[in-house]
Amino acid sequence: MREKLLETAKQILKVNSIDLYKNRHDISEWDSLAHIQLVASIEEEFNLSIPFEEVANINCLADFLKYLEE
Amino acid sequence: MRIALLSNVNVDSLVKRIDFCEVYSPDGYGIWLQEILNFDSELYKFHPQAVFVILDGEQLFPRFNRKNIMTDIEEYFSALEHVFSQRRDIFFFLNSLDFFTKQIRASDEVREEKFVEIEWYRKLIELAKKLTNVHILNLKDLVEKEGRKNFYSNKLWYLGGMKYSTKGEKLIIKEIERSIKALKGEKKKCLAIDLDNTIWGGVIGEDGIEGIELSEFKEGARYKDFQKRLKEFKNLGVILTVVSKNNEQDALDVFEKHKDMVLKRDDFALMKINWDPKSKNLIELAKELNIGIDSIVFIDDNPVERELVKKSIPEIIVPEFPKDTANLVDFAEEIYNEFFYVLRVTAEDIKKTQMYIQNAKRTALKKKYASAEDFLKDLGTKIYVWKLREEDIPRAAQLTQKTNQFNLTTKRYTETDVRNFMNDERYDVFIASVEDKFGDNGKVVLMILKKDKKRAQAEIDTFLMSCRVMGRHIEDQFIDFIEKKLKKDGMKLLIAFYYPTKKNKPVENLFERLGYTVIKNDNEGNKVYSRNLNIEEPRVFYGELIER
User: Fold this and answer.
1) Complex ipTM
2) Hey, of B163, B166, B167, which one would you mutate to test binding to chain A, going by the most A CBs within 10 A of its CB?
3) Do residues B52 and B63 make contact, with C-beta atoms less than 8 angstroms apart?
4) If you count Cβ atoms within 10 Å of the first and of the last residue's Cβ in chain A, which end, N or C, has fewer?
């Protein structure tokens, strides 16, 4: 599951490698558009829903894990 | 190819996904109409070859009042038509509207929005009919197929003003990609199909006519429905052929006697029903139809046959056959979308199979004659030549894109390029159609000439002829006409070129045969020729040439 998450992120952000815990503000490719795309792709890819209120609180890829593992 | 994408919603995410061509999209999505209407806008500075306009109905008509909306539609379309007709150098794609409201309503309340969708679509069809540079992007079809709930995303809308879900975006992009491919004329020509377990269920040699699966309802309808789709291929300009291992008569009996056969014998340009290897049949088929082997798509349910063909002829496209035959109809659509997708059907496309059948008859007749000359004389060939007109442009562009064998310079042109030649007084563009006692071959010869009045010489930029009419000395008569015409125009010298490609070997020595002198050649095989127009070349003609 983590693999798939990393793959999706790499595709959206168009980067070759990415760290689960690196803060999004330190990743230049992870801009506000990419953030929205990432949330949407992960929702569709894993068939889950991230509540609207929590989207802004996602700061690194690891933050997605709690939805994936639920 | 350079494209632009305009919308009244945020399409940044969509644009970011496009990696198959250069894209321009304006900053801010409120200005799509200004960008189109103003010829000095960034849009036109970008010099796009195609512009995709993707409009969201809800944003376009935020307040619902049917009467006002109908007036708005009228105004939008008259403004757009004005612009589109002025910029014939650009292809415009405009979407069919998916217009809906999230209003909560009583069951019997009139769904006014339905009328808006239809009115928009009606206007759109009208516009596309009127202007050859306007095409329809069938967004509404995509939404209907995928379902609105999956196509749109509430969350993306509230987060970023983006309407479409990731899935929706991908579908739109696929559609754009297909449209671009179609504009470039990148498609296959011929579909070769197997019979047993492909267009009917079972094996005719074992199960017999009564035993094969093919019917209007239930199990056999899988195949009947598949056949219906394949018949549509033919009407879209795809040449249908059969390559099957069977006793020929057993298979032909099905075509003649089975009441549920949708495909008839004469839907096929050629049938190869025998026990030879399929690769051998496919090679012969390409030869007899005079098409490249790489323009064939071969469909067979048997993985062993598929592998064998793929191994011996890697250029042929051999798609996987669906494991679940309930999906045959979807399979047909995928094949069409992937390999044969067209934006618009030309008159030539519809007649194509018929023409290939006529050609087969010509070949059969040829065998009866003692000499090729006698055959050609008896064919009653008529060549009609005229200067290119607006209505010939799509066909002319198609000819430059698709003709490989009899093509001296193999320059590929878009409709815009062709129109520019037509309107440029330094150029003359001639097109010819060929008829004979078997029928009309349609427009099959094209020549683009560049004239230099000062030096009294002309150059043959493009000279091509469809393979359908090759080997009939039509080129001799055509070029003779051109030479005389140029001479009358005061030209003294005609310069011609031959640029070798993998496929145009048949015309390598054409100009030598026609009495031209090589004045330059290099070690790659490129040749430049000249011909003094004051000296007449004795030539033998077999047909009649008529200037229109």
Assistant:
1) 0.87
2) B166
3) no
4) C
